[in-house]
Every structure is written in C-alpha cells, then in structure tokens.
Protein 1
Amino acid sequence: MNNYIEALTNPVYLSVILYSAQIAMLTTVVTLLVAFPIAIYLTMYASNLEKPVLLAVFITPFWIDFLLRAWAMRNMLYAIGMGEGYAAMIFGMVYEFLPYMLVPLYLSLSRLSKDQIDAARSLGASTGMIIRDLIVPYATPGITAGMTLVFFMSLSEFIIPSLLGGVQGFTMGSLIYNLILAGDRWEIGSAIALMVSTIVIALTLLIVFRYKGKVMLF
Amino acid sequence: MKLGKILRGYVLAVGFLLYLPIFLMVVNSFNVNPFIGEWRGFTLRWYALLFRDFEVIQGLTNSLTIAVMSALLSVFLALFTSMFMVNHGKFRVMDALVYPPIVIPEVVEGVALMMAFQYAGASFGWLTVMIGHTAFNVAFAYIILNSTRVRFPELEGAARTLGASPLQAFLKISLPLAMPGISVAIAITFLLSFTNFIKTLYTTGPGFYTLPLLIWNRARRPGISEYAYPNALNALATILLALSLIIALVFTAFTLKGEGNNN
C-alpha cells in the first residue's frame, strides 16, 4: 500500500504521470480532429467504388509493425529538418494511432445514412440541428471508444516518446522502464503499472457493455 | 456537394501523409547515401550488407524461432480450449477472460510477465520470451478461432456411426474443415510475436535479442557503425515491411474466401 501512496505523492513520479496524461490528452484530441472528417467522408460522401479502397488505405497501417512506422516517421521528421521534440512526439503518436480512432468512428457513423440527413433537411432542419440531433448522437459511441483507446495507448506509450520525444520524451512508459528494468524501485513501477491497468480494464468493460455491437470489430 | 469535394481533398492528403514516411523508408533503402535525404544513385549495398551482419542474422534466427514456436503452441492451446468451449456453451467466463490481454497496455503486460517469471525463479532468456509471447497470443488465437467454426459435432457423429474412432473422426472430419481458421490464427500470432517489442524487452535475459530489439537499439543510435547507418536499417525495415504485408494479404485472402463459402 505504501508503494501506491508513494507513487501518487512523490512529486517526481506524480509530475511524470501528469505530464504523460497531458500528452495523451493532446494526442487524443488531435487524433479525433484529424479522424472525424475522414469518417464523415467515408460514411456519407465516398462512392461505392471509393469506399473499400479508402478503407484499405487507412487500415493497412494496422498491419505494419509499430516500431517500423515509428522509425520511418523519425526518418521523415529528420529529413524535413523537424528533428525530435514535443511536436514531433505528438505528430508521431497521432500518425500511429489514427486507425484506432478512425475504425470505431467509422463503424458508429456508418449506422447513419445520408438519406436520414436529407430527410431531416427536407423537413426544415438547419445544419446546426442536423449536427446536434443526428451526427453527434450517432457518433458518440465511436468518439467515446476511440478516445478511450487512443488515450490509454498514448498514456503508456514507450516507443514514440523515446524515439521522437528527445529530452521531452520522458513519459510514464519510460518511467516504468527506468523503475523496473534500469533502476531498483521496481515495487513503485509495478504499483503504477497496476493502477493504469485497473483503470484501463474497468473502462474497456464499461465500453464493451455500453456500446456492444456498435463500435467493436469482433 | 462543395463540402464533399473539400473533404475528399483532405482525405487524400491524410492518406498520402500516412504512407509518405514508409515510402521514404523504402526509397532510401536503395540510396547510395548512407543517410536519409539527398539521392545519390541506386544501390543494393545495404541489402548485401545485411547478409554479412552477424547481429541481424542472429536476431532473425531468434525472432523466427520464437514466432514459429509461439504461434504453433498458442494456436494448439487455443484450438483445444475453443473445441471444449463449443460443447460447454453456457460457460461464458472464458470469453470475458481473453479480452484483458488484448486491451491492457503492453508495458503493464510486460511488467506482469516479468514479475511472474521473477517469482517463479526462472532464468530470463529465450524460454521466458517464448512463454511470454504465447501468453498473449493464446488470447488472439482464441478470439480468431471462436469467430470461425472449429467443431462439427453432427459430421463427427455421422463418421462415428459409420465406424470411425473418435480420433479418426476428429482428424479426418473436423480438423480439415477447421483448417482455414487455424491458418489465419497461425499467421496472425506469428506476426504478433515476430514484431513484438515491449513484451520481449521485459521478458528477455542477457544476450538474447530479437530483431525488434536490435532495430530499437540501432534506431536510437543511428550511424554508430556501418551496419547501423540509417539506410542499412531502412533495408532491414523494408524486408520486414514486405513480410508484414504478405501476411496481411494472406489473412485478407483467407477472410474473403471464408465469407464466400458462407454465402
């Protein structure tokens, strides 16, 4: 129990945890902003010919090794002279996590057809009303699932901050690594790890039960 | 209509950006220049270098051994669990138990595996890595096998009536019919194990490294030796990329074929 208290009260550990949470929050919001228009286009504007091709384009990176994509991204950022740092780290995480946001968004929005929007419009609904009363309610399960997924993946992410973050890349993943593999405070490291996993499992179960069949692939 | 055009341009731009780094990686693996950037002509030097690189060959051998063993072992375990569960449909706990390994952050899983091995008094090395990979692969294999059909009680029953032994009925009827699902499960678990980095990092011991660990070490300090020039690493990454895409293609082909059969 003392380990948990220390993990949460020691200012060094606490500041790293808060820093990781801040990075994860920013990554999640940016990923959502990038993915949302894509999901709208795929569900409402893409032709039947275009849709499978675009879906394949955005889902194929799922299959490519995370580490390879991080390395490729690092190459490109160095080639354009951006190097490593805070912005590079956020950019890299958005790049890696985009499919994880896009798929739940796409699945939840695909239940809404363009006909429904046209019907609402012909009955006199304004664009604001359509967004508020149609798009947002339909997209909510996908937004919740995607944001949770991306938030927790970026919270404990280790590869991207280490490869792209430079000195600003010391996040929770690096903290746990240092405490357990490089240092000797493994009991604090595992306390932090256990707290994170408890929250993740609880939220996943919540989403699975709340939105069953609306956002999941399996 | 206008909005659709704007969105279309945006979608294409994001799609382009998604593949740009990978494209640069592949192109630069053929660049005479050892560093990324200026194009100085075509060469296969970085690929030739891989064959002389002892560390790469060692890492590849280790990765392949672990991935093959872990894929076969996890699919074997998952297959029998899945076959058992078909006959005990009410027992839903198993289905809930397989999801946590998929959603828990990898770092946490790595730490948990490491602690378990520590308390068990295991010496860290290839065996701990293999068991660690199998521990999460089983969950994926179980989910994949459960989404396909693995047991055909009515057909097996018919075979038994015609005089086949239970073993014969299983080997000659159920196993061949379940083979597409099994192949997909083996392909996926192989890929997951072959590319795994975090869990390997936490469960490996002194001297045992896989290809991702080697890439990681070189990616953090590019250019410390001829073998670790960025474009030498790009050549290795390109080969691994091709491997991932081939497995993805096999998977897609199998899923499409499976859907065709159902209709």
Note: The mean pLDDT of chain B is 83.
Protein 2
Amino acid sequence: MNLATILVGLAVAAFLGAAVYFTVKDFRKGGCSGCSNRGKCGKHR
Amino acid sequence: MRKTIALAGNPNCGKTTLFNQLTGSSQKVGNWPGVTIDRKEGEIKKIDAIVVDLPGIYSLSPYSPEEIVSRDYLLYDNPDLVVNIVDATNMERNLYLTSQILDMGIPTVIALNMMDAVEKEGTEIDIEGMSRLLGCKVVGISALRGDGIDELIEAIDSAEEKPNPIALSNNSEKVIRQISEVLRGTVPDERLRWYAVKALERDSLAIEKIGDSWNQVSEFIEAYEKAEDDDSDSIVASERYEAIGKTVSSVLKSGRTPGEYTISDKIDKIVTNKWLGLPIFAGIMFIVYYISITTIGGWGTDWVNDVFFAEMVIPGTESYLESINVDPLLVAFVVDGLLAGVGAVLGFLPQMAVLFLLLVILEDSGYMARIAFIMDRVFRKFGLSGKSFIPLLIGTGCGVPGIMASRTIESERDRKITAMTTTFVPCSAKLPIIALIAGAWFDKSALIALASYFIGILAVLISGIILKKWPSLTGLPSEFIMELPPYRTPGPVAVIKSALSRVWSFVRKAGTFIMLACGIVWFLSAFDWSLALVDDINDSMLANLGNAVTWIFIPLGWGSEWQFTVGTITGLLAKENVIGTFGVLFGYADVAETGVEIWSIIASMVTPIAGFSFLVFNLLCAPCFAAIGAMRRELGTWKATGAAVLYQTTLAYSVSLIIYQIGTLLIYGTFGIWTAISVLVAMTMAYVLISKDPFGQYRKQSAEVTI
C-alpha cells in the first residue's frame, strides 16, 4: 500500500465520516436528511 | 421579574413570522401536554421576557385541541401579557378572537400586522382611535418586513393596564353582570367577565365553576333568550360581530368601494370555478413539468450527465487517482461507487432546480392555496375533505412534514387516513425516479410526471373510499374552512432564496446519506460472500440477495432483473437511492469509456410498460424510513404503522400488477395466468370500492344486535 493510497483512503474515510455525522444529525432533528420543508407543518403560521 | 407573554392570533396572521422576529434563534420547541401540538417558546432578550407561541385559532371556544390548549394556557398559566396579532387586512374576522381575549382581563397589546399590505390598498387605520376604544396599546407592524417591531417591544415592556372589553348590547351586559355576581368568589375577579360570558354561552367549563348556583343562572339566561327570541350563544356571537363591525368602521378608512371585487377575487372567479378549476390546475402542472423535465431542466440534466460528469468529473478523477498510483480497488470504490451513485442523483439537479423554482413561484403567488379549495369538492365525494389535501401539498416537498401536517385535522379518522396516504403523492425525492423513467422510455415526456402526480392523488381518493369502510376508520369527512390569501407577485429574491434552499437540501442529501448508501451498494456488488472481488456482478453478494427476493416482482414485469428489486429496496432508505443504486449497478461511471448511457441500458432490460409499472410501484409502496417514523408518531403504535405500510405496499403491488398485465395484454396481446390474476385483483378492488359493507362490519353489528 503506497502513500497516495493511504492519503486518499484517509480523505475518503474522513468524507464518509462527515457524511455519517450529518446524516445522523439530520435524522435526530426529526426529518430525513436535507428536508427543505421542515417546520412548515401548518401548525404555527 | 421576567415577564411571560402569550402570543395569540388567527392562523395565517403572521404569528410565526412575528415570533421569529421577536425571539430570533433563542427558540425551543416542545409539545403541549396530552396533545400532539407543538409548543414554541423563545426569549425577547432586550426586555427579559419569555414568549409562548399559542396555536393559531379563530376563537377560544372549546371545540378543537388547539382552542382548548390556548384557552387553558390563558386561564391557568397566568401569562403577564397577551400579544394579540391581528391581520390588518382582515380585521373583522380577526377581532372576534380579540374580543374574547379582552374579556379575560389580561393586559393586552394588539400587534396590527401586514400594515404594508394595508397601505398598498390605500386604506388608513386610526391606530390611536383603536387603542382608545379597546383600552390597550395597538401597534402597527409588518412582521415580514420587520417594521414596527421595536415599537411593539416597547409597548410590551410598558403595558400593565387591563383592557376594555368590547361591550355587547345593554340587555346582554345586564345578564353578564347578574351572572358575574353569582360567580364572585369562585373565580379570580379579573376573570369574572370571561366566565360570565362563557356561562351565557352555556360553556361546560363555566357551568362547572358555577356549580349549584347554575339553576339560578339558568333562569337569567332563559329570560334573556325569551326576550331576545334566540339562543344565548347565537345572540352573543352576533352581538360581538356587530360591536366589532362598529369598531372597525370607526377606525378604518377604506381605499376600496364596498362590494368592489379585488383583482384576487376576479382571478378566483375563474381559477376556482366548479368546471374550470381542475383542468386549469392540470394545465398549469403540465406546463411546470414540461419546462422542468422536458425542456429547460431536461437540457441542463443532459449537460450535467453527458458533459460535466461523463467527460469532466469522473474521467478527471479516475485519471488523477491512477496517475498518483492509488490502489485500483480504492479507485474503483471512489469512481464506480461514490461518484457513480452521487453523480447519477446529482445529474437530475437541473430538472429539480427548475421544478423547485416554478413550484415556489406557484406557492408564493397564492395559487397553491386555491388547489386545496378546488380539491375539497373532489375529495368530499371520496369521503375526505380539502383539509386532507394540505398535507399532500406539503408532502410534495417531503413526506415527513406532510405526514406531520395531518395533525391540523380535527377528525381522528381523517387524520389517520391522511397520515397513511400522504406519501402517495410524489415527494421531491421521488422526482428523479419519475425523470429516470420519463427519460429512459418516454423521451422525457412531461405527461409521465403529470400522470405520476395524478396517480398519487387517485391513490389517495381510492384509499379514502376503501379505508373509510374499515371498522375503526368510518365516519363523516371533517368540515373545511380555509382562508384564501390574496394573490401577490412573488418577490424574485424570496423565490430564488427559497428555491436555492431546496436545491441545497437536495445536494446535501446526495452528498451525505445517498453517498453512504451508494458506498454500501458498491461494496455488496463488487464482492462475493468470501469477500473476493467478482468479475461478473451477477456473482456478487448483492446479486444473491436481490435474486432471493426478486421473484416476488416478476408478475409486475421487472422482477426478472434483480437490479430493479435492489433499487426498490434501497429506496426504503431514501427514494433517491433508487437512482444512486442504478448509477452504481449499471456503470454510470463507465459512460466516458463505453459511450453507452445507463438510461439506454436500463431501457433495454424491460419493456416500457414494465418501466411504468416500476415507477408506479415505487411511487405508491412503503415510503422511506424517515416517513415511516413520522407515520409512527402520528398513528401512535407500531402495529398501526405496520398495518399502514402493509396497506401501501399491497396497493402498490396491486396497481402495478394491473398496469403491467393489462398493459401487456393490450399492447402485445400476451395473456397468461398473471393476466387473469390481475383481472381478479381489479375486480376485488372494484368490489371493495363499490360495496357498502365489504368488510362485513355492519353485518356483524346487526348480528350482535339480533343475538
């Protein structure tokens, strides 16, 4: 395994880790990741 | 000492906008106890006060959960002040709630909102005069523009006096005084008038407070009703409106001749017409999809797929990684897995961006509100009301808030049916699937998108009929009263901001959740069970898993290809995953080398009618896990949620089966056992739709009665 592979591998792992973090964060807010209508449920206008 | 302020007003009066202006980012969202209604609180840091946002209500009568929550908060939680937001363009309707709040004797400040719209109409309001009449500070604001907010905060800080209630007739005031004397000592003095008026309206809460003295009070009320020759609650309501009318005419100088139609009224005469409404709606949606899917958006998608990804990003990344000697397996993961999957989804971004822009224009112009009104007529014939259409409209963005919006429906039966059927209408995540099918088989025809929309609505209507015959869901549709906001020209900045926000959400989802799913799909499709790399994808773990279940979908026309089944299953995580999965499995990354687009590969695998059956199945079947979670919150139990998902998937399977089998018979003349079964399924559905008692509910009930 050469240095380029290791560095690219680490970069990909970091990217995937960030993806996991933001996905879990969005799901915890009660909606699917990237829901653009969150909050506009018609209750409080 | 920290002040507690209750924010009260009608729905659509700008309450949330004002709440956001006052509290900024210091908001907390919870739940009112015992009901599934959001409770929002925030701080006004300038004056050390807490604002509690009450649900939007038209009155404080105890009929809906929202009204009860608001009434109980004002009566028992003793806020220091009420800020009552009144829509200045609709004062007569808004002041009904105001008159009830003033009866409570709580210090009140009235925020007269939408003053910018009032000025535009050429109308003047004597705000000082209104303050004198109502005995409380009135502040003109525009919550949207942020005008008058500082003055409002000053008024909140200095308000202490109790307001003047809006007086009714002399006879009514006499009876109210009589009842107040009976109530004295049992309720706080400042609440005497409120309870007395409620007793006059025969409200159960007031009757409970009066207790044993109710007989005496009842005599007062009966004498009063005899004198006025009407029921006491009708008298009170009509006198309130009369008093409000006098107040409004004394402070309002209208720029319009009474009875004169506004431009909005003139447009509505055509757009909400009994015969023209639906065709106009269909025509507008066709134009929207034609521009976004077929032409402008379609051209953008072609460029992103054929040039940006196929000639620039993917070959560029691949050759760079190879040039620095990155391990071929890692290159394959990045290029054929992550980039291929995410690229396939982002390829649809131009179509989505144009579509979002057009839909935001329709929403901001006020037209979308008319759709709910038009659809009420149609929905009512199928056992639902137009109130059920509003969650569907919201669900066209994302099913999760659409399902949550079913909370606004008072009828439990309608609420449950709406929560179960909201996801039948395509959400934005399903739009790439529609664009895929339209592009692969139907030359990007806008009719496919239009058909998908109307199949979704039809599924909702059919479900309304079927489900209302289910024993626990019978009942009449709820009443539907809604306000049509005036039409307005959407502001270009607001439209672009809103559309960009939705585009960013799409991109963000592709770069996070979809990318993760594509990585997993690539891994499962690149290795076999002994974790050895495969030469033929059909030997992979994913192919094995897909082949184990794909036979279920053979009658639908696409089950012979395990990739379609795997795409459908990964769609349970997020519907865009269907595209991402296809991108990985059909080699989106290989276009630069082979020149063969994946859409032509997909199109060559099954017939167009099978492709359409695949689309319909994915539109109607179980939604993504996030939406299933939202359904669980609204339906209450996992059992009910499981039943709902089973219903959705069964309906999806049945409809797709009928479309494929009957379609194949008509187009190719092929008849087989499954054609006969699909006819039986269609007849069963027709029976359930037409029969009055398909589940034997009434026969069972009459049998119990006989015994």
Note: Confidence is low (pLDDT under 50) at residues 32-45 of chain A.
Protein 3
Amino acid sequence: MLTLCIESSCDETAAAVIRDGRNILSNIVASQVDVHARYGGVVPELASRKHVEAVSVVINAALEEAGVSLSEIEGIGVTRGPGLIGALLVGISTAKAMAWALDIPLVAVHHMEGHILAPFLEDPPEFPFLALAVSGGHTHLYRVDGIGHYRIIGQTLDDAAGEAYDKVAKLLGLGYPGGALIDKLAGQGRPDAIVFPRPMLHRPNFDFSFSGIKTAALQYVEKVDKEIDDQHRADIAASFQEAMVEVLTLKTLRAATQEGLERIVVAGGVACNSGLRRRFQELAGKQGGRIYFPSPSLCGDNAAMLGVPANYYLEHGQHADTKLNAISSWPLDMVGVI
Amino acid sequence: MTLQAWETTTCSATETRELGRIFGRLAEAGLVVLLSGQLGAGKTCFAQGVGDGLGVAPSSPVTSPSYTLLNIHQGRFPLYHFDLYRLAQVDDLADLGYDEYAEGEGLTLVEWADRMSGSLISSLEVAIESLGGDRRRLHFTARDDRGGELLGQLVRKWTAVDISS
C-alpha cells in the first residue's frame, strides 16, 4: 500500500511517501535548523504560520521525490498528537481535505509511536521490545508488545534529555544544535574531570530527572571565576555527557532486565548522540541484548516514521473520519483508547 | 487581606515545590501567573508544586515545556503551562493561541515570562533568584486585586507552615 504521511506536531513540517509500511520512497523535512542557528536556538517565527506555508511544499516535494502521482496514494497517515494544537491542526486539516478529495482512508498516528517504530523502516526488531524515546521534548521508556500496544515504564519528571543538552550548550557558549555540539566537544575532553550528579540513578523506578544535572553544570560554570579555556570547556562537555549517558543507558538496561526484554529501540533526536550510541552498544553486548538505532534522518522529527503505524492501521481498517481532531496531551498508552 | 508584594527564601527544591503546592491549592480558575528567573532557578520546580496543589495526577508529571512550548494538565481545573524560552516575539505567542488559554477557565503559568516583558497581562508575577547552592529568593508581585488576594492567602498559609514546622 502506498501511504502519504504528514507530520506537524512541533517545529518541523514534514511529509513522506512510504510503501507497505516498510520502504521509504521519500522523506522530506522543512528543516528550520538554519533559521534556528541565526537566532541562537530561538524560534523566530513558529508553529502554525510556518507550518501553513510549508505543508503543501513538503507534500509536493515528497510526491515528486517518490515519483508517484497523487492518484496513486492509497491512504494518508497524520500525526494527531501530542503537540501544539495549532501546529497539529495544519497537518490534520490538510490530511482530512486530501483524504476526502481523493476518497481514500485517513489514519491518525501518535507522534511518539512513529519515533519508536522507525527501526521497522530499516532493520525491524521483533516484538516485544523496550523503547527509549529521547529528544528535546520527551524522555520516555515504553514496553512495546505490538503496534498499538504500548505501556509507559518511566519518564522524565522535569527536563527532557535533549533540553538539558541544549541548555548546557548555551551555557558553554556553544551554538545550535547544542546536543550535537556537546557530543562533538565531549570527544576532546575528560569524562571524569568533573563529577556531575546522576539524579534518580539509584531509585528503583524508571523515571528520569535531568534538571539537576543542568543546574549542577550551571553552578559549576558560575563558580569558575577565571575565563573557561577550550580544554576546560571540552572537559565540562565530556563530564556532562558522561552523566547523561550513564543515567540513560543504565536505567534503560535495568528496565529491559526487569521487563525480561532482550531488544531495545533507542529513538528520537538524542538517539543521534555518538556517545550514547557507543555506550549502549558496549553495555548491551555485555548483557546479551540487542540495540536498534534508527538512521539519523529517522531520529529527528520526520514523517517517514509515521508510515509504519499508518500502514498497519490502514490494513486493519482503523480509519479516522472527518471529525478527527488534534490532541495536545496524549499519553502513548492511551492510543486506541482516546 | 490583600498584599501587593512579598518575598521569601527557600532552602531546597523541596521547599520551593512545597510553596508552589500551597499556591496551587489556593489558586482559582482564570488566573495568569508569570514566572521568571535564570536557567536552573527553579521555575519548573515551582510549577510542579502548583500542579500538585491543583491535583494534577502523578501520571501526567509537570515537566519543562521549553521544547513543547505548552503543556496542558488536568487538575481541579486545567493548568496551561507555557514556556517562552524558545520564543522571540509576541506574535509567536499569539500563534500558540495564548490569549484563548489565558482568558479561559484554567490556571495559566508562564515560564521565562520576562522574555516578553510588559506585553503580558497577569494577576501575579513570581521572580525566582538563586542565592547559591539550593537557596532561592522568591519575589511575588500582585498585578491586580485577585493577585493581591491570593498573595495574602499564600502568605498566611506559608507562615503557618513555617511556625508549625
């Protein structure tokens, strides 16, 4: 089945054409990274207005790159939530109008469900598995028993991991995107130079807290009264990264053990972090499990990732109608319930 | 008793959250509260307490909205938790539907409100200042009668807590 997917839940407007929930024919993201860089990480013109301008452009580009015409599309998948209502509605209204005009079915997809199922476009894991979804806005652990069957095992109680990365990057005077720059700089520093806290690491549950690491980095930088030179900055980056990676990997692996799961999917923007990938591979090797990372183009927000659940819901007749509305707060375990 | 301004010092994140919790228990629907303070000051920490006081379920933890820009939680009435950290201009706020939320039947909490200083109408402003370590100074300023009333109640409750502990 040929599916057109549309994503507009936060900063990115994206469209993709996917065949059979497996093959990516196109994956277009109207990335605003260049614009971000100019404003030091601030979004100058955001959400709905930007999505309105971009949505038809990315859809046309996705069809063109896939080499298919609109009449060949057999179903449409769209992000229903969670996210900003105004932003989500741009994608949803477009998807509804197209599905109605083309007389093809429409299905609603959860944004995080797209992220954690992204590996099915490359190297499909078997169910069940544990998923760590980690990005600027999310840090969640899910047990995944099948498409549409998710259970929340743990989540951040304050900052998302990607947010802590970006805020510490700003503190160190690095540019945007902060996470990638800290990751790069960390390679030149000593991870044991400064001991930052590991919040929640020894708690028996699987919730995270990253606000404390961020504040500790701030307090450290404030206490250094001389100019921070390049080596010192690299040491701070490496030590911060060490604390983040240790908490993320150890808690995830412990959750996998408790749930009796051998396969772990790490998805979302922070899944691009090289230090995180390396540590997960090392530790999983020792534990005898297997880790699945999507390619970088499928880690950040994109529409291709929606193709996996969209195709499944289309095949199973779980269609949405023209009354489909956006949901701003939508826990993943409520998929299929609300 | 209404109060125009009040300041207090908290010695830990737990105490800042507790102050927020009492605030959340007293808060009424339709209020707009602006939070300011630098990185790591404890704005989200205070907001977590407010959520708790409003009766937001622990399964919907009050987390930082820096990336998501707006998180909505359901308590006694809705909590609209905005964060302007990534915004550059007032137009962006309108684009998020801010006015509809702020004029609605919930409690609107706005982090990094100082990024849009002067352009937001509120009942109360809370500025959090780090005194080093875990100590924080919280400066409350009422901007209208409802804010003044709430601040008066907050001070009474908080002082009572201080005495009993």
Note: Confidence is low (pLDDT under 50) at residues 32-42 of chain A.
